[in-house]
Structure prediction request, 758 residues.
Amino acid sequence: MNINATGLDFIDLNEALRQSRGSCNITNCLGQRFLAAGISDKTVTVSGIPGNALGAYLNGAKIEVMGNAQDAVGDTMNDGTIVIHGNVGDAVGYAMRGGHIYVQGNAGYRAGIHMKAYKDVQGNAGYRAGIHMKAYKEKQPAIVIGGKAGSFLGEYQAGGTIIVLGLVDNDKPIVSNFTSTGMHGGKMFLRSDCKGIKFPSQVHTHFADKKELEEIGHYLRHFCTYFGYDMKELLDSPFTVVMPDSKNPYRQMYVAN
Amino acid sequence: MIDQYIYPEFEVVRNQSRCISCRVCERQCANEVHRYDTDLGVMLSDESKCVNCQRCVSLCPTHALKIVKSDCRLRENANWSDQTIKEIYKQANSGGVLLSSMGNPKPLPVYWDKILINASQVTNPPIDPLREPMETKVFLGKKPDKILRRANGELITQLPPQIELSMPVMFSAMSYGSISYNAHASLARAATELGICYNTGEGGLHEDFYCYGENTIVQVASGRFGVHKNYLEVAAAVEIKMGQGAKPGIGGHLPGAKIVGDVSRTRMIPEGTDAISPAPHHDIYSIEDLRQLVYSLKEATDYKKPVIVKVAAVHNIAAIASGIARSGADIIAIDGFRGGTGAAPTRIRDNVGIPIELALASVDQRLRDEGIRNNVSLVVGGSVRSAADVVKAVALGADAVYVATAALLALGCHLCRTCHSGKCNWGIATQRPDLVKRLNPDIGSQRLVNLMNAWRHEIKELMGGMGINSIESLRGNRLMLRGVGLTAKELEILGISHAGE
Prediction:
């Protein structure tokens, strides 16, 4: 089914999407927010630029955006897949608990913050990608970012996997300031030697060994399939793994009064 | 240097002529104060562990026990109180941030107690609620500003989504994790029987309690614990937690030790991981950003659920509330600085925020002045202790109130203020199975129902006395209130006259 988004506001567009069955093509999308919020049973392809909070609370559907996306992609996502053939804005995968996000380009601030358990994003992410990301049992979320990530990547990350591949040529480091601040679970894989990048004291870093690279192999293969990269090319560079020292970073801070 | 000695705060007084060494006190005390000395054949106590929760006192079959405040004091000093000095010792011993529980215990003004309620005499006669109908039902949500009709003159009667409450009281947010399964079960069942709502707090909704969804408000906080599609859909309303009265500007932090079993499952995070819910929502830096979260929740729930935004009462609360009222939220919940908590830094709890009475009066007035009062319902909490407080809150402009401490007291809480220890002897603020089972949800829910039915009765009596037969006619009716012992400025903010005027 095709939905022409021209002239539709976000309420009308989402209502049309809810009414549709099976796979759905949205064309001429121009900044409509909350697209596909909470849906669980569709394949949605978007041409144009969706607005903020694309796929918020997503519960199992697949969304493919043939261009850039804006802030808060996959906010509190529970399951499903989001594929972005471009860049994403800030806070991609906020408190994501399940499902995968693949971003071909860059991510803004705070990608993957509060991620609890989290899958792949390809591309670049904005600030705070993966904030509050969490993992829980079978729910292992992942974000794979093909390009580079902004500040606060994986802030408060509590689970899941964040992968940043750095596949864009610019002078910027693969991640920006305050990466993994407050991280207390999950893993981050940065395709870089991370020289000169400062990490907070509660995490440690090491180069990924063969076994760890196998762990993320299926995310990388998906990334290659979605965006036409070669697996060998991706593995041609070292991956730095970032992991927290403790799941209980604040235990010693208090005294009972 | 060794730790500085702090003399125990309480003394356990055991009347040996009554004590039968049955060891009930020993079995009941999770703090391990009591023990039986087999050689001497007597019960002994280690007072340094006592928190004065009164569990042993209540269960001693011969009433042989009492707990008294120790009279071993430091030299008197009006500036340096015992409490202040001991806090310094604790911090010098540990280097830690002081952690406390429940509401602010400091002797700061309680404005409820300085406000008196009117009653009718001679003209405008009182109404007898025992014999005449009296309406306590309220609806929370956005109300239309005007009557709309279709072209043929038919009334348009679709309203934005509302919560229907049989009385203007709800149980406020307490997460599963901070309180026990049985405490949640008691609140959920009581709310359902009463036709009001309870609130999950930010710890998710246990699968066993989905059946109480129509009487459940689910919370979405910065950490998004347990937030998913079904959780949002099952509820009567969705509350975005921006702040909490006991600790404005401070987030939630449930230690990993409490993330066990069902708590982990309900929060959807692994066992043993700290549940960190920081004060800032890192996706909200403006009213526009708040609007985005409000509408993402509305979209995810098909516009069928009212969205509540909960904030702590702080400076400039009227301007903050005005912003929230324009964000698309249906209900604003404001939590005053005396509100309770399972754990908060002492300094924050005791020094940050403002009294709910002043916050409520200024918010209601501001929204009226701006002509947007009908955009939202107002719910207030932060130490509403009785039916009289409820009536005063409604007359100051609240649509309903949130109570939590009063509800916990009904469940057996003795306000010992050590929830953060996780060793609640009353089975409320604990996850230890042997302690949790002490709270029987059949009895707990009945006690909550009793309390609320009693309050409902008292609310009707107070309303009847004023000659008012519907809670709707009381809301914002500040003529029904007078202040005593308040300054002109306080009266101005509260929008009430002084007694005698």
Observations:
- The domain at 10-96 of chain B is CATH 3.30.70.20 (Alpha-Beta Plaits).
- Chain B touches chain A through 47 residues (CB under 8 Å).
- Chain B is about 30% helix and 15% strand.
